[in-house]
Structure formats: structure tokens, C-alpha cells
Design goal:
The chain has twelve helices and seven strands. The chain is mainly alpha-helical. The longest helix has about 30 residues. The strands form three sheets. A three-stranded antiparallel sheet has the order 5-6-7, covered by helices on one side. Strands 1-2 form a two-stranded antiparallel ribbon. Strands 3-4 form a two-stranded antiparallel ribbon. The chain has two domains: about 190 residues, no CATH class; about 35 residues, no CATH class. α2 packs across α8 and α4 packs across α7.
């Protein structure tokens, strides 16, 4: 009569082992979830708003989008320093010891781009995840969008951009040191023009940024897309961050020192100051004094 009890004990042990295994699997999935998947139609919608950007700017946006959590702070910093340009902006980026990935810092000269990304974090997150999970498919979606815009007569060489290529459509700045941010409505440029619509007015170029030697450490001047190979080159080095290595991959930026988040002191102090102090800091007085103080403290 005692024998029937043994299977019950074994069954309980089996359930315990199964539960333990299930918890282990759930923990592993939580730490390393499978990559998301996107249909071609979803990718077409995802890239629509940036597909007609010049290749160097598009490359920086694709790489920066994979550091989604850093975008809001970067957008705020760029807005607060929108009055700086060229060497002064480059020096401010260096002085503030910003903790973000250099690909995110590369967009600081473009506050409107960072604002677009920060104001729609669902879109930015999806774009970054799509790039990590399947960069080739994202780049194919960009090419589909460019072919449509070109087919319908909206995308042409002129002014600040040069459009070339047949199988793969390239968009390059006329002046490599001057990058424009196109303004267009995706619902217009990827569809046949309505009767009487002025095609030439569909894409505007109201905002541009001079990118000189001061921004070389962040990849400007040495960033390109090789469409035939689905390759993005930043600082003349192929960018290879993926869903699998996203926690470990560090792209080389020889001229950019990487700071831990705790090292970012001056910017937080600047945000908390009164308007009068902030104005003085923008003129370089208060900021310079405290930067020297923090520098002496760190050393």
C-alpha cells in the first residue's frame, strides 16, 4: 500500500524542477529578449520621415537611434546650447564631459533632429530596435522610399544636395562641410503628385549646419553609407552594432573621450541655476570658473 505514494513524491520533484527551469528561461529572456521583427510595410513607415536625409546625416541618425535612452537628455542639451556653433559648440561638448555615446553627441549640432527624435520616443525606439535587429532590412526600406520620391519627381539634385545612382539612390551634400536637414511631408513625397501640385515645393531645405574639422572626432567628414553592402561607416570604420552585441560593442572614436554618467557635473548644475546665473554661464564666465574647479577636484 505504500508504493503508490512514491510516484507522487517523484511528481512533486518533477514539478519543482520544471518550475525552476521555467523561471530560469524567463530570467534569461528578460535579460536577453529575442530581437523584434518588422514587416516591410512597417519599416517603410518607420523610415519615411528620414529616408530623404543626406547619407551622412542619415547614418548618424541610424546609429544614434540605437541608444534610445540617451536621446531625451541630448535633445535638452542641444536646445539649451542652440546658440553655439562651430568651434564653440565643439568645445562646449568636450568641456561638459557628456556621458552619451559619440553617435548621439554627433547630432548635437542638429537640435531640430534630436527634438524630432525626443518628441516621439516610440518611433525612435522602434527605429533603433529595427536597426539593431536587421539593419539590412532598414536600409532596403530607405531605398524603397527614395526610389518612390525620385520616381514621382520630388527627389532631384539641386541646391544643397546631389542625388545619384540607379540601383541604389545616394543623397550627398553638395558641400561636404554643410549638412542640410530636409523638410517634407511623407504623405506627399511618396505618392503620385496631385494635379496642379508644384513638385519643386515638396522638399524644403531651410536649415543647414556647417560641419567642419571641429566635429571630426564624432565622425563628421568620415561618415558614409555603402548601399550595395548595406554598410554604415563612421570614422571610416564599419559600424557593426547589432541586437546580439548591443551591450558590448564599442565603436572606435579616437578623438572622443568617453565619460561615465557620474562625471557629468557641469550640465546638471547649469540646468538648476537661476536665469541670471544661466545667462552668465552662457557668456562663459560662471561655467568656466566651475569647470576649472571640477577639473582640479577630479585631478
Amino acid at each position: 500500500m505504500r508504493h503508490p505514494r512514491r510516484p507522487l513524491t517523484l511528481c512533486s520533484a518533477g514539478l519543482a524542477a520544471l518550475l525552476s527551469l521555467t523561471l530560469s528561461v524567463q530570467s534569461a529572456l528578460a535579460q536577453n529578449p529575442p530581437p523584434p521583427t518588422y514587416s516591410p510595410e512597417q519599416l517603410d513607415k518607420l523610415v519615411a520621415r528620414v529616408a530623404l536625409y543626406p547619407d551622412p546625416l542619415l547614418a548618424q541618425i541610424l546609429t544614434a537611434s540605437t541608444f534610445t535612452d540617451q536621446i531625451p537628455d541630448a535633445a535638452k542639451w542641444a536646445d539649451e546650447h542652440h546658440y553655439l556653433q562651430g568651434q564653440e559648440l565643439s568645445q562646449a561638448i568636450t568641456n561638459d564631459q557628456l556621458p552619451w555615446d559619440p553617435s548621439v553627441q554627433a547630432l548635437l549640432p542638429f537640435p531640430s533632429v534630436l527634438d524630432m527624435m525626443a518628441s516621439d520616443m516610440n518611433w525612435t525606439t522602434d527605429l533603433g530596435n529595427a536597426v539593431l535587429a536587421g539593419r539590412d532590412a532598414v536600409m532596403d526600406a530607405v531605398q524603397r522610399a527614395r526610389h518612390k520620391a525620385r520616381q514621382y519627381g520630388y527627389l532631384n539634385s539641386g541646391g544643397p544636395i546631389v542625388v545619384s545612382g540607379d540601383t541604389y539612390v545616394e543623397i550627398l551634400p553638395t558641400n561636404p562641410a554643410f549638412i542640410v536637414v530636409p523638410v517634407y511631408d511623407p504623405f506627399v513625397v511618396y505618392a503620385p503628385p496631385r494635379p496642379g501640385f508644384v513638385i519643386g515645393a515638396a522638399i524644403g531645405f531651410g536649415f543647414g549646419v556647417g560641419i567642419g574639422a571641429w566635429f571630426r572626432p564624432w565622425g563628421w567628414g568620415a561618415t558614409r553609407i555603402v548601399w550595395a553592402n548595406h554598410a554604415v561607416f563612421i570614422n571610416n570604420v564599419r559600424w557593426e552594432r547589432t541586437w546580439v552585441n548591443r551591450r558590448d560593442y564599442v565603436h572606435p572614436y579616437p578623438g572622443v573621450h568617453r565619460y561615465a554618467p557620474a562625471a557629468r557635473v557641469e550640465h546638471h548644475d547649469l540646468v538648476r541655476r537661476s536665469d541670471a546665473e544661466r545667462s552668465a554661464a552662457r557668456e562663459g564666465r560662471v561655467f568656466h570658473e566651475e569647470h576649472e574647479h571640477h577639473g582640479d577636484h577630479h585631478h
